[in-house]
Amino acid sequence: MDNKIIKNQIYRLTIEGYTSDGSGIARADGFVVFVPFSARGDVLDVKIVKVLKTHAFGIIHKIIEPSPARQEVACPAFPKCGGCDFLHISYDEELALKARRVRDCMVKLGGFDIEKVECAPSPEVYRSRNKALFPVEKDGDQVIFGFYRRRSHQVIATSDCLINHPNASALASAVAQWATEYNVPIYDEESHTGLLRKIFTRHGAGGDFLCIVTTSRKLPEYNKLIEICRSACPDLCGIAVNVNTLKTNLALGNRTYYLWGEPRLRDTLLGKEFDLSVESFYQVNHPQAEQLYKEILRLSNLDKTKDALDLYCGVGTITLSLAPLCRKVLGAEIVERAIVDARENAKRNNIDNAEFFCGDAGKAAEEIAAQGFKPYTIVCDPPRKGMDETALNAVLSMSPERIIYVACDPASLARDSKYLCLRGYELKSVSAWDMFPRTANVESIALLCKAIQ
Q: What is the mean pLDDT of residues 424-428?
């Protein structure tokens, strides 16, 4: 059957909603058409650029009637830069679409009967990120940094980024200046040659930390690098070199060397101090993380007669936040360096009722269950792919009264919540949390309680 919609033709369409990645959804001649950087309610002339069997992709040719949700874009790199998705719509519209996305995943993928989900706004919409990872590229004689163009590895240069702390761009500019002045070879993904791969920064209560990702620990004129970076960022507390020689898209390698200053960055969260290594996971939006953790503590329903388990614990931020509320809490994490940090963080905060285990979450949970540990509450904060069956079954074997599932992908949350609810649990609540303003990513929390038999 011939397609009714024709490639390269222009159609007048009205945007009805959004996809999971934030593209607008419209309909033309029975086809669903996905249109990036559109807003619900836009009336657009859309040029069709790709046609498949049941849907098509288009780009905005002309805005005929802008949506009330559309706004002026404040960043000159948008939309070429892949760092943001929603600079063209209001923040209220962004919160609404994120809430709808979590709700739709729970209903369509999990089979739950949920009328509405609320999305907690970020206390800071811009400059909210304490972590930045910049790719680098050679542009003539200059080394540039920025973010990749969408669906490519071409770097779109930026001198400043609205979603990152300003010191991130200051440090990246300093590294680019050093790399330009001393002709530092830039890593080439195709030939796997060159030295400088990425620029990684973190900001916290203790200042700023810089890590440059390279293919060798030997750097030309490294004293000049230190000098330039310290001048650009007076709050700089340490510089590290992470060596990544792998032919991979993974940002970090498995060897880190410290070039100057402190080996870790210190931050505070809910009144506790945490030291962060380069490899350690840490929430990127500090003020929103504090609000999210308060919600986790509220949902935990712990007291000094109850125990808790924190799976995927990272440097122990949730674990140590739970500790004052309960009799004993265990944390499990696969990244060895993070567990070292977690144990030191427990000592630093004078917490003696927390223990940490290094290993895959599923296997660690199995070992903990085999020891007869019976937590009242289990908190799970897995990576984007969610929990595997081993981890889910280990959680079930401990039969906690409450499971608090923190997810950065609502599809994984829906799938894993369904698995647990088919095996003796009930979904009590689900909420969305905007941890990543101006992007399509959304955090969510589900509370699951043991079903009454």
A: 97
CA-CA distance, 159 to 161, in Å (whole number)?
7
Quick count: other Cβ atoms within 10 Å of Cβ 116?
A: 7
| Of the options 2.60.40.10, 2.40.50.1070, 1.10.10.10, 1.10.260.40, the CATH number for the domain spanning 131-269 | 2.40.50.1070
**Cα(73)–Cα(60) distance, integer angstroms:** 15
Residue labelled with tokens 């003696």? 352
- For the domain made up of 10-65, give the CATH fold: OB fold (Dihydrolipoamide Acetyltransferase, E2P) (2.40.50)
Mean pLDDT lowest for which of 245-249, 290-294, 441-445? 245-249
Among residues 84, 326, 408, 449, the one annotated as catalytic is 408
pLDDT at residue 376 greater than cutoff 70: yes
Residues 6+ apart with CB under 8 A from 177: 228
Annotation says 161 is catalytic: no
Query: Which tokens is 184 given?
Result: 């530092």
- Given a contact cutoff of 8 angstroms between Cβ atoms, the answer to whether 144 and 176 are in contact is yes
CATH superfamily, domain at 272-450: Vaccinia Virus protein VP39 (3.40.50.150)
How many C-beta atoms lie closer than 10 Å to residue 124's C-beta?
Answer: 14
H helices of 24-165, where? Answer: 91-108
CA atoms within 13 A on the CB side of 271: 6
